Amino acid sequence: MDSIDSSTSSYKIELPFYEGPMDLLLHLIKKNEIDIYDIPIALVTEQYLEYIEMLKVLNLDTIGDFLVMAATLMHIKSKMLLPPDPEEDAEEADPREELVKRLIEYRKFRDAAEKLSGREQYYSELYDRDASIEGLKKEEILLEVSVFDLISAFRSIIVRVKDKEFHEVTIEKLNINDKISDIMEKLNSNKSLTLQQFFENMGSRYEMVITFLALLELIKLRLVKVVQKNPFSTIEIYSN
After folding, report:
1. Which pTM was predicted?
2. Do the record's keywords include Cell division (predicted)?
């Protein structure tokens, strides 16, 4: 098995901007075009737990917050499986009610905070919807890609890779700083790459994870742009 040096195995990465469990829930609601007042808790819980598994693999330092919310979702799911109490009002008996209130309040304060802090400008600088990127036509509009979109896309890539597709096992240490250099070198040579292209010819899943962590670090440092030309289209990476 490929080895990872101690500095890498204990590496804790923060998301490029804080994205917590409430943000993930709102992301899933938006992604699935769900009515926030009528959340299909089983579906959302299943997808939420899938993200949790990837967050564990990535060793993100906010994992504890996500686990608390996961427990809350599972509790709500279990309560919804119980027969309703005929003595309680139907609306008051809805186990989702408190969560919905929290989500609406959180979204309200988050939107206000974004305006006050100029975070919208931060997003435009990070993902650069309208900036001129070499290789793109002027009329093309670039769409923002969230961290959760990236994690979801990475999960789709890594689960499709079969063990037999990896190279012969070699003993080497994987270093995030080296991967950062590799990514920047590739972008300088190719102008842009799709997310899929970053993980071609990888020697192991460990190497794929380290490469993804390096990409997150570059996003945090604003050294790369992460964009889509259309919703659900290929995610592309450009040097900033």
Report:
1. 0.71
2. yes
Where exactly are the structural domains of the chain?
3-239
Pair type for strands 3-4 and 224-228: unpaired
Q: Report helix angle 147-160 to 205-220, nearest 10.
A: 170
CA-based Rg of the chain, rounded to a whole angstrom? Answer: 20
Q: Between 63-80 and 97-117, two packed helices, what is the crossing angle to 10 degrees?
A: 150
Q: What is the pLDDT of residues 104-143, one digit of tens each?
A: 999 998 888 777 765 555 555 555 444 445 555 544 445 6
Strand order across the 192-194 sheet: 143-144, 224-228, 236-239, 192-194
Asked whether the beta carbons of 5 and 208 are under 8 A apart, the reply is: no
